[in-house]
């Protein structure tokens, strides 16, 4: 299945934060697209999810309702697919073992993308609360390999719009900004729509089979200090920079209860230690912009313009429990 052929893509977590971007990208790139989603009768379905499902169905997405405990139902849906992409949130990462079991039972899936899409968990060591999260993701990778399932692991680094909202609070017109540590650690902030398009492409690309694909888009590598300065230049405002020392972040990660300690541990890894850029790419690694050199992507400069003049994604909050 190469060239112009279309792959039938099945999503888990397709109505979540990053999942919805990927589902839209799958449809836009012409792939028959199915989302396996919790039944609407579930008490945990937020009202906004209902509108999103209507939107996805309107653009041609097939919604199949089911639970992750329904093994035979998942196998049945998988037998009508070529690729499985999981975009399940943090609390459901271990539940992907059920997806792996169903893929192995179905026997026809040509590629599985587990719910990574963040840091490259096999290359870094973080503070204990975040490391426990990464260890769960690593377990899913090892289980995928042990099952002999063809895979692509995606390290998409930071969701750009999510972190611009988190760091700069553009909708609130604040006069100050929190700087974590020195603010000099290099990070990678990629726009969610670009992450989604790249992910659909690598999911169907034979060059990415059984490989790690890392999204280090050159125009999106910068420090928090550089991001703040760029925002000040665009808005014509000067923000008071309030530095949070590394020692305070570490202490809070040790004293706050679970799961409140996880976001601070992520902040420490990404913005203080600069873990996203702390390792060299290996020979077997693929950097996505090199894989698709002709594909345009949104630079961090352009993404900030969207927040100023466009219709930016609203603030969101990751689920850790």
From TrEMBL:
Entry GO MF terms: oxidoreductase activity
Annotated InterPro entries: NAD(P)-bd_dom_sf, NmrA-like, NmrA-type/Isoflavone_red_sf, PCBER-like
Superkingdom of the organism of origin: Eukaryota
Protein name: Uncharacterized protein
């Amino acid at each position: 299945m190469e060239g112009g052929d279309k792959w039938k893509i099945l999503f888990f977590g397709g109505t979540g934060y990053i999942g919805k971007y990927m589902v839209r990208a799958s449809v836009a790139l012409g792939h028959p697209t199915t989302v396996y989603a919790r039944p609407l009768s579930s008490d945990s379905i937020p009202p906004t999810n209902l509108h999103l499902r209507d939107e996805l169905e309107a653009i041609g997405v097939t919604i199949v309702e089911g639970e992750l405990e329904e093994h035979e139902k998942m196998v049945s849906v998988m037998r009508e697919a070529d690729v499985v992409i999981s975009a399940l949130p943090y609390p459901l990462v271990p539940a992907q073992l059920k997806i792996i079991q169903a893929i192995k039972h179905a026997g026809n899936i040509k590629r599985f993308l587990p719910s990574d899409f963040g840091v490259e968990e096999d290359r870094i060591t973080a503070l204990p609360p975040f490391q426990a999260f990464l260890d769960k993701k690593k377990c899913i990778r090892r289980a995928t390999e042990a099952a002999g399932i063809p895979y692509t692991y995606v390290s998409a680094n930071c969701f750009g719009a999510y972190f611009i909202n988190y760091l700069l609070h553009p909708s609130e017109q604040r006069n100050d900004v929190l700087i974590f540590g020195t603010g000099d650690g290099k990070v990678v902030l990629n726009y969610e729509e670009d992450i989604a398009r790249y992910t659909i492409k690598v999911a169907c690309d034979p060059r990415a089979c059984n490989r790690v694909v890392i999204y280090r888009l050159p125009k999106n590598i910068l420090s928090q200090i550089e991001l703040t300065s760029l925002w000040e230049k665009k808005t014509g405002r000067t923000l008071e920079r309030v530095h949070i020392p590394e020692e305070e972040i570490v202490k809070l990660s040790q004293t706050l209860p679970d799961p409140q300690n996880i976001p601070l541990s992520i902040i420490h890894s990404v913005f203080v230690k600069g873990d996203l850029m702390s390792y060299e790419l290996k020979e077997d690694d693929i950097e996505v912009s090199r894989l698709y050199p002709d594909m345009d992507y949104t630079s961090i400069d352009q993404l900030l313009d969207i927040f100023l003049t466009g219709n930016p994604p609203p603030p969101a909050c990751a689920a850790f429990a």
